[in-house]
From TrEMBL, chain A:
InterPro entries: GerAC_N, Spore_GerAC-like, Spore_GerAC-like_C, Spore_GerAC_C_sf. It is found in: Membrane. Residues 197-353 form the Spore germination GerAC-like C-terminal domain. Belongs to the GerABKC lipoprotein family. Keywords: Germination, Lipoprotein, Membrane, Palmitate, Signal. Pfam families: Spore_GerAC, Spore_GerAC_N. The keyword Signal applies. Residues 21-187 form the Spore germination protein N-terminal domain. The keyword Membrane applies. It comes from Metabacillus sediminis. It is a lipid-anchor. This is Ger(X)C family spore germination protein.
UniProtKB/TrEMBL annotation, chain B:
Pfam families: Spore_permease. It is a multi-pass membrane protein. InterPro entries: Spore_GerAB. It is found in: Membrane. The keyword DNA-binding does not apply. The chain crosses the membrane at residues 12-30, 42-65, 86-106, 118-135, 142-162, 216-239, 246-263, 269-293, 305-323, 335-354. Keywords: Germination, Membrane, Transmembrane, Transmembrane helix, Transport. This is GerAB/ArcD/ProY family transporter.
Length: 356, 361
């Protein structure tokens, strides 16, 4: 009798425990979000979603919604008014920020992204050179929906030649003292989308843009690289080194109150395009190693100098310095722009492919 | 009034009971509270606090072995019936406070992360009903839940692999960059997470050959230190200090990075699995409170259990805001702190004195 009563009671309670039902086909799954600058207070939000129309062998179609508002939640409400199905943002993969907006600062939008429990942390952030709305509403491929296209493009390039960063990594660098955040820059040219470099942030503002070549050097300084490609010119011939393994190490020293830093890179790889040299010759191999070393050192030093000039530190020299007991924030701030930062590269060519 | 032999459990179960009591809903978000005062050095506090709790458990065993029964009879022995019963009531209320804290915090997590539209009383009633049905099965059933909770918790530890892949070990440097008083402050805050071992003071007579269970209790505390240490070190190498300060549930947030083929968002699995971690805290707490009330009042344990469950239900429903939950945490922490480091050693000294005095008579 009592058991029956408890069972009855739990059924009644269960009935109250049904939140709004969510059926996949009846949701508007937003996969890409774009934010554009409208005026100093207002922003335009764009949501790109993909829906598969009923019927066999029907191709997925893209749907894009845009609205202007003061906060991203207000925009979401306005977007809802355009859609026949409830908008859900649990599957967002990429968030795009318009360049002009990023120069003004994106802290409010970041706050919204990390406050929402629906948003994952392994999603990508990227800058849109022009309008992110246009970027989301263009169709780039006949078989792949735009949202997936943008996601795959970023994911692929971060595997290969762009510094790896997702929402968590960005927030880590954004909050972290002694580190500055960055994100890739996308540009639409006609019906193509490509990554044209990396934007470096100071706090929540975009302050510096570097091209893809420099971005690769930033990747070498910030990530552990497993498979990379590097092009070097040796005796006026272009060679390329593949399967590049590289690992950065930062050391910071303080001598008589003045800081100096050193970035050590250990690079290993194999030559994939020989340029007509005999690769069994030891002097040639060591010659290539030396040229590669010089090239990386020069490029890297130039890049670091440009960071010092714009007072950003995406590589994290300050972070490393802070891990010492004697760190002084003021001294570092005064010295950073003119601090000597040496780059020290060790190159080893493992082999040169399957032919001599 | 000692329990019959058929209702007792083997000494090694004390490991599971103590360990499952100490691991609760707090694991999901304790990092930020202790990192507030000691920053990246807070992991030292986790160790200090855990070891000091092991010392408190030593005091508990000395008191219980000498008395042979539970805290109720210790109170009666030292302070007499009247004052003893006041203390007994306070103790039962404190155990219920811990139950309330676990229940309400867990329901808050469900509400914020999974079902923001559902009323909190729905989850509160469901979980309490479940816990009630376990407790009405008696102490052996509750012990079983504690055992299962430890087993079910193990897979969740493997999930730490994903954040550790992106770890920044350098975060922990330089070690000892905070002052001793900062670390002690964090140690005090950490006490809350180790609470729950006090139920030992009630269930001790239910252990077969109670003396032999002592080492299992220490192993239980050590295992809890291990879990908390692993959790906090993972969060520290994964998050930045300032990022951690703004993250209410650090462990839950780092589940967001888990990348499994068939599961897009691991938090939902994690929160659901966490019910089994929270359930023994609620069940054993309810059992201990009802047993305590039953020991010093003429009520049967069934009646006292219903009363205790109803009290928790009403209090849990009345708490509606984050700030109130925070306040509740703070209150439990303060009471638990003084109970562990002042009251239990005090009882030990009083008991020694009473025995000396009796012997001399």
């Amino acid at each position: 009798m009592r058991r029956g009563f408890i069972l009855f009671l739990s059924f009644i309670l269960m009935a109250g425990c049904t939140p709004e039902q969510q059926i996949l086909e009846e949701l508007q799954l937003i996969q890409t979000i774009g934010y554009d600058y409208v005026s100093d207070d207002e922003i335009m939000g764009t949501g790109g979603s993909t829906s598969i129309p009923p019927g066999q062998q029907s191709l997925p179609t893209d749907e894009v919604f845009s609205a202007i508002g003061y906060t991203s939640k207000q925009i979401r409400q306005k977007l809802q008014n355009e859609s026949t199905k409830p908008i859900v943002i649990g599957r967002v993969g990429v968030v795009l920020f318009n360049q002009k907006l990023a120069e003004k600062g994106i802290s409010d939008l970041l706050d919204n992204l990390q406050r929402d429990p629906e948003i994952g942390r392994d999603i990508y952030l990227a800058l849109a050179k022009d309008s992110s709305q246009k970027m989301i509403s263009t169709k780039y491929s006949s078989s792949v929906p735009t949202s997936n296209y943008i996601f795959d493009l970023i994911q692929q390039s971060m595997e290969q030649d762009m510094p790896r960063i997702n929402l968590h990594g960005f927030l880590y660098r954004y909050y972290g003292k002694g580190l500055d955040a960055y994100m890739p820059i996308l540009q639409k040219s006609d019906a193509r989308l490509k990554i044209i470099g990396v934007g470096v942030f100071k706090n929540d503002r975009l302050v510096q843009q570097i091209n893809t070549e420099d971005a690769y050097y930033l990747k070498m300084a910030a990530d552990k690289i497993r498979k990379g490609i590097l092009e070097v010119s040796y005796k006026n011939k272009k060679l390329s080194i593949e399967n590049l393994l590289s690992k950065p190490k930062i050391t910071v020293k303080k001598r008589n109150g003045s800081y100096e830093a050193e970035l050590t890179l250990k690079v290993k790889g194999r030559i994939s395009e020989g340029g007509g040299f005999r690769m069994t010759n030891k002097t040639i191999i060591s010659g290539i190693e030396k040229t590669t070393r010089k090239q990386i050192e020069q490029q890297m030093e130039k890049l670091i100098q440009s960071f010092q000039e714009s007072q950003v530190d995406p590589i994290g020299f300050k972070r490393k310095a802070m891990q010492s007991r004697t760190f002084s924030n003021k001294k570092w701030g005064d010295q950073y722009a003119k601090m000597p930062i040496r780059v020290n590269v060790q190159v080893t060519i493992i082999h040169a492919g399957i032919m001599e | 009034m000692l329990p019959p032999e058929s209702k007792k459990v083997s000494p090694f179960f004390v490991f599971y009971i103590i360990h499952s009591q100490q691991i609760g809903v707090a694991v999901l978000g304790f990092e930020r509270y202790i990192a507030k005062s000691a920053g990246y050095d807070a992991w030292i506090s986790v160790i200090i606090s855990g070891l000091s709790i092991a010392a408190v458990v030593w005091f508990c065993y000395r008191i219980l072995i000498k008395n042979g029964n539970d805290i109720i009879s210790v109170h009666h022995q030292i302070f007499g019936k009247r004052i003893g019963n006041v203390l007994n009531t306070a103790f039962a209320a404190y155990v219920l406070l811990l139950v309330l804290l676990n229940l309400r915090t867990y329901v808050e997590v469900i509400q914020v992360w999974m079902f923001p539209e559902t009323y909190h009383w729905v989850f509160i009633s469901l979980i309490l009903l479940l816990a009630y049905s376990f407790v009405s099965g008696g102490f052996r059933v509750v012990t079983g839940i504690c055992f299962l909770s430890v087993i079910y918790g193990i897979p969740l530890l493997f999930v730490k692999y994903f954040p550790l892949k992106e770890a920044h070990i350098g975060n922990l440097l330089p070690i000892f960059s905070h002052s001793f008083s900062d670390i002690m402050e964090a140690t005090k805050t950490m006490t809350l997470n180790y609470l729950g071992y006090e139920t030992l003071l009630i269930f001790f007579p239910f252990i077969k050959d109670g003396k032999r269970s002592e080492k299992w209790a220490y192993f239980g505390v050590l295992a809890s230190i291990g879990i908390y240490l692993l959790t906090i070190l993972t969060s520290f190498v994964y998050f930045d200090q300032d990022q951690l300060r703004t993250t209410i549930w650090a462990t839950l947030t780092l589940w967001k990075i888990v990348d499994l083929i068939i599961i897009e968002r691991f938090e939902y699995i994690g929160i659901a699995a966490w019910l089994f971690i929270v359930l023994p805290n609620i069940a054993l707490g309810l059992w201990a409170a009802s047993r305590a009330i039953n020991r010093f009042t003429p009520l049967t344990q069934r009646v006292s259990l219903k009363g205790a469950a109803a009290a928790v239900l009403i209090c849990a429903i009345l708490i509606t805001e984050r700030a109130q939950i925070d306040q509740l945490n703070f209150m439990a922490n303060t009471i638990g702190f003084y109970l562990a480091y002042m009251y239990i050693p005090l009882i030990y000294i009083c008991q020694l004195a009473v025995h000396k005095w009796r012997d001399s008579k």
